[in-house]
Specification:
The complex is a heterodimer of chains A (816) and B (109).
Chain A lengths: L2 E6 L3 H13 L4 E7 L5 E2 L4 H6 L8 E3 L1 H6 L3 E4 L3 E5 L4 E4 L4 E3 L2 E4 L3 E3 L12 E3 L3 H11 L4 E5 L3 H12 L3 E5 L12 H13 L3 E3 L4 E5 L6 E4 L4 E3 L2 E4 L3 E3 L2 H5 L8 E3 L10 E3 L4 E3 L2 E2 L3 H15 L14 E2 L7 E5 L7 E8 L4 E8 L2 E8 L5 H9 L25 H7 L5 E3 L4 E2 H10 L5 H8 L9 H12 L19 H10 L5 H7 L11 H12 L13 H5 L2 E2 L5 E3 L10 H13 L4 E4 L5 E6 L4 H10 L12 E6 L2 H4 L7 H12 L8 E6 L13 E6 L2 E6 L2 E2 L3 E2 L2 E6 L2 H18 L6 H8 L1 H10 L1 H18 L3 H6 L11 E2 L2 H5 L1
Parallel strand pairs in A: 1-2, 1-9, 2-5, 9-21, 11-18, 12-13, 12-18, 13-14, 20-22, 35-36, 36-37
Antiparallel strand pairs in A: 3-4, 6-7, 7-8, 10-19, 15-16, 16-17, 22-23, 24-25, 25-28, 26-27, 27-28, 29-30, 31-32, 32-34, 33-34, 37-38, 38-41, 39-40
Helix pairs in contact in A: 1-8, 10-13, 11-12, 11-13, 14-16, 22-25
Chain B lengths: L2 E6 L7 E7 L2 E7 L5 E5 L13 E3 L2 E3 L6 E3 L15 E2 L1 E4 L2 E5 L1 H7 L1
Antiparallel strand pairs in B: 1-10, 2-3, 3-4, 4-8, 5-6, 6-7, 9-10
Classes of the chains: A alpha/beta (816), B mainly beta (109).
Chain lengths: 816, 109
């Protein structure tokens, strides 16, 4: 019979435990989770990058909704357990849900410690613990006013850096004389303070908070010495306390944390505890590596698997602030029986200290240069006698035994059992073994199969080197494929940073994101120009010199340097008057070729550039506007004749096609967008190989997307069925806007959809009405600026210089 | 040298190009982001694409037809491609631009 497993808490530790459990015994338990936070399991240690804007929340989700569904797990979001009845073996949530259990796992985590000063409950005082805190900080940061962070430890400094990055004026108050004194010695603490201050953050050490002052909301922080620091936001990050109240009330043994043995069992045999709330061997833990170790042991206990016991080990500390590298491990206090080796490079801001006892490393502090952290950690773990290499130890692994300073060689020299990923306890041999054994080819594969680099990400470089080492030339780091030679950033990073840092011009992007060239290249400039047009439609002035010639002159360049012109024919419908006007233009300008296109339009080829404005002027008189056949934008909406004429037609496909085209023309997109509307499933408009297509049926409109009929051939996927034309339009517009905002430049919808996942797109566009509406509204705003006919603009004189030579010279001499 | 006036610096968009018509075909006159001016034949060594229509970046232009990158200083194709296009001397006097047409004139004569 299936046993019932109930888990209180849905953080990283129980999430990992479930992964192990599902791997070992997928059918043994019926699992129910109660999560006080109203969301799925996410990577809490990555909240700092979310705060600073380097990552989006979606990127740090560990288990999306689909994961719970796939594994048949019941997840109560936003349910706080208020009582455990150990007699009846039930738990009850604050919403009144009662669930019985055979096994109960308590993973309630910890709560931020709030220092007991007057004013601590004022609005504007936050802690730094979960996504709600981050969202509240982001909201407060919009004011770009003053913020005070109380606490100069890991969390406090990450919060301060994030708020500064978001434009706030930040002061860090720290009660001790140096920052992060529990992980750093005073010398490294001093360097850290300098590095933090260099970012424009004020640091006050030995700062004792007396009160948080304000009338109805935070106005400032008062120190014991009488100093008053004005602030509209105060973040308390002075530490955490295991969350044990529930366990205590249930009568379980509780000390600092919920007391468990080395197999994660509490004083009640049916109840286990793990994570930050658990106390094992007198220790409570806050870093992820030991918590994941607890998860592994708890899962083994739940499956009667091999007998695993928790053993204490030191975990390295790293700060997740871009540009500040520090690494600390173990014990680095001075002592009689201890020796130390120190390297300082003042101009480079480097400090390294290794603390030795009996010729073995017991502690390490690295600042400014942390590449050797893993190596030192390995030596410490194995208690290697370092007397042989003592003279060069501090210079790192590269200086040992003639190994070259090539980082790849350094990684190659690591032993198979050297730890690469501290968070997940993954060693080199496991990664290389997985790469060869499972035929892995990229970073994402390694993350999926071994978990290495899947948590804080600081070992990503090492994992990539292992990929390179193991696969040789075959390794193609697609995950970090840079946009072009001008930057090491990929498209996704650039798009995210444009929004996060509020970058609104191409020079601003190149400056802030450290472009390697002064003015980009023909690959990155059009991409950046598109991203800016898309992200800041009302603020960005389109840079035509960064557009490909076709989009600059609104016609298609041909192999002989002439152009082709395609006027818009809404939904592919034309008239005698329009055809006559086209015929006249063809005669007048001696256009050598007229061709019907695949998108139901008429193409005139071989037009001299100088003639373009005059051609457009004549076409304009007949009511034609640009057909954007040259654009990374909405091209055509192909239609069939539908219910107006066809004996099979179920809806007015022509009318809907025209309506869509009139609504969406002029919009710029990452790559071209071709659409079609078919009036019945016979599909004469070939809607099922388009970027977006509609197939009308009796009951409404079936919306298709992600088709291709070019380099690749691919049938569409069905997004869903809607009942009315209005709904169809809203869904299509929202879909295209989502694509506009997320895709990489030149990436067609089908490639984007493959990357993002059809399920995710359906979820955001069909299931989430609010999200659909905001996407729709953003498209509408963007259209206000985009729906201008470029041809008539040019007929009235815009960009005149494009269409005529600057001068004609030399002809006089030739005539002589 | 026989300098012939072709117009003003401001006639050419920043990071852009204009053409000058001559009996031997078009000359493309480029203006870079830092206001340097270069003149080369408007004819890509690859398949004759109109270089004046390309995207200008640094002191180079990318041909609109097949993305060859041509150095405006030397006229040579950059990167793995091989080929070169004629460069012409340019003189900037204040706002006014001149190109040297001696070679042209002698050929034309």
């Amino acid at each position: 019979m299936t046993e019932k497993l109930v888990i209180i808490g849905n953080g990283m530790a129980p999430g990992r435990m479930l992964e192990h459990l599902l791997e070992a015994a997928p059918d043994r338990y019926a699992v129910t989770i109660f999560n006080a936070e109203p969301r799925v399991n996410y990577d809490r240690i990555m909240l700092s990058p979310v705060l600073s804007g380097e990552k989006a929340f979606e990127e740090i989700v560990i288990h999306g909704d689909g994961w719970y569904i796939k594994h048949g797990i019941t997840l109560y979001k936003g349910h706080r357990i208020v009582a455990i009845d150990r007699e009846a073996k039930t738990v009850t949530s604050d919403h009144g849900v009662t669930e019985s259990y055979d096994k109960l796992v308590i993973a309630t985590g910890s709560v931020p410690f709030i220092i007991p000063v007057p004013g601590k409950e004022l609005p504007g005082v936050l802690s730094y613990r979960d996504l709600d805190d981050v969202n509240a900080m982001l909201l407060a940061a919009q004011s770009r006013a003053k913020a005070v962070v109380i606490g100069g430890g890991l969390l406090g400094l990450e919060a301060a850096a994030g708020l500064k990055e978001r434009g706030m004026d930040v002061t860090v108050l720290h009660v001790m004389p140096t920052l992060m004194e529990r992980q750093l010695d005073p010398a490294a603490g001093y360097l850290l303070q300098k590095a933090v201050e260099a970012r424009g953050i004020t640091v006050v050490t030995k700062a004792n908070t007396k009160a948080i002052v304000g009338n109805g909301k935070v106005e400032g922080v008062e120190l014991m010495d009488g100093t008053l620091i004005p602030a509209t936001l105060v973040v308390m990050a002075v530490g955490i306390r295991p969350s044990t109240a529930l366990a205590k009330e249930a009568g379980l043994e509780v000390n600092r944390g919920i007391v468990v043995d080395d197999r994660m069992r509490t004083s009640d045999p049916a109840i286990m505890a793990l994570g930050e709330c658990a106390e094992v061997g007198g220790h409570v833990y806050g870093l992820v590596a030991p918590l994941y170790e607890m998860a592994r042991i708890a899962a083994a206990g739940l499956t009667d698997g091999e007998d695993k016991r928790f053993v204490h080990s030191d975990t390295p500390t790293k700060l997740k602030v871009t540009g500040i590298d520090l690494y600390s491990l173990g014990d680095f206090a001075d002592g009689e029986d201890r020796e130390e080796i120190i390297l300082r490079d003042a101009s480079a801001g480097i400090y390294k200290r290794v603390v030795l006892q009996d010729n073995r490393i017991i502690g390490t502090v690295l600042f400014g240069e942390t590449a050797d952290g893993a190596w030192f950690n390995d030596l410490k773990k194995k208690a290697t006698d370092i007397s042989e290499m003592r003279d060069t130890l501090i210079f790192g692994q590269a200086f040992q035994g003639g190994v070259s300073s090539d980082p790849l060689a350094a990684v190659a020299a690591l032993a198979d059992d050297a730890e690469i990923c501290g968070c997940n306890g993954v060693c080199k041999g496991k990664i290389t073994g997985a790469i060869t054994g499972k035929g892995l080819t990229g970073l994402d594969d390694v993350r999926a199969h071994t978990k290495a680099s899947a948590s804080c990400g600081s070992c990503t470089g090492l994992v990539e080197q292992l990929l390179k080492l193991t696969l040789g030339e075959a390794y193609n780091p697609a995950a970090v494929q840079p946009m072009c030679g001008c930057t090491s950033l990929g498209h996704d990073d650039v798009r995210r940073l444009i929004k996060a840092k509020g970058l609104k011009t191409i020079p601003a992007i190149m400056q802030e994101l450290e472009w390697k060239t002064s003015c980009g290249c023909a690959k990155c400039r059009p991409a950046l120009n598109y991203y800016l047009v898309c992200d800041w439609p009302d603020q960005y002035a389109d840079d035509y010199q960064s557009r490909f010639i076709n989009e600059r002159v609104h016609a298609n360049i041909q192999k002989d340097g002439t152009y082709s012109v395609v006027p818009r024919m809404w939904g592919g419908v034309t008239s005698a008057g329009e055809l006559r006007a086209i015929a006249d233009v063809v005669d007048k300008f001696e256009i050598p070729m007229v061709k019907v296109t695949g998108g139901q339009r008429i193409d005139m080829l071989g037009i001299r550039k100088e003639d373009l404005p005059a051609v457009w002027a004549d076409l304009g008189k007949a009511g034609f506007v640009s057909g954007h056949a040259y654009a990374k934008g909405l091209r055509t909406v192909k239609t069939c004749v539908g219910s107006d004429w066809c004996r099979f037609g179920t809806q007015d496909s022509t009318g809907l096609g025209i309506r869509i085209e009139k609504f969406m023309w002029g919009s710029w997109t990452p790559a071209k967008v071709k659409m079609a509307v078919s009036g019945c499933p016979r599909n004469c408009a070939e809607a099922t190989c388009k970027d977006v297509g509609v197939v009308c049926v009796d009951s409404g409109y079936e919306i298709h997307f992600a088709g291709a009929a070019g380099l690749d051939i691919k049938g569409t996927e069905v997004l869903g069925l809607v009942k009315t034309e209005d709904e169809a339009l809203e869904v299509i517009v929202a879909l295209v806007q989502m694509y506009r905002e997320q895709a990489r430049y030149l990436e067609r919808i089908y490639k984007w959809a493959k990357r993002v996942g059809t399920t995710e797109i359906k979820k955001q566009i069909l299931d989430d009405a609010e999200r659909r509406r905001t996407l729709f509204d953003r498209f509408v705003l963007s259209q206000k600026f985009a729906q201008v006919d470029p041809w008539s603009e040019r007929v009235s004189g815009k960009d005149k210089h494009e269409f005529r030579p600057m001068a004609s010279v030399g002809f006089a001499e030739a005539a002589e | 040298m026989n300098w012939i006036a072709i117009g003003c610096l401001s006639d050419i968009p920043l990071r852009g190009a204009r053409c000058v018509a001559t009996p031997q075909g078009k000359i493309a006159v480029f203006r870079t982001a830092d206001d340097q001016v270069f003149a080369i034949d408007d004819h890509c060594p690859h398949k004759g694409g109109p270089l004046s229509q390309g995207i200008v970046h640094g002191a180079a232009v990318t041909c609109p037809l097949h993305n060859w990158v041509i150095s405006l200083e030397t006229g040579k194709a950059l990167g793995a491609d091989e080929g070169s296009v004629r460069t012409l001397p340019v003189k900037v006097e204040g706002e006014r631009l001149f190109i040297a047409l001696e070679a042209l004139a002698s050929k034309a004569a």
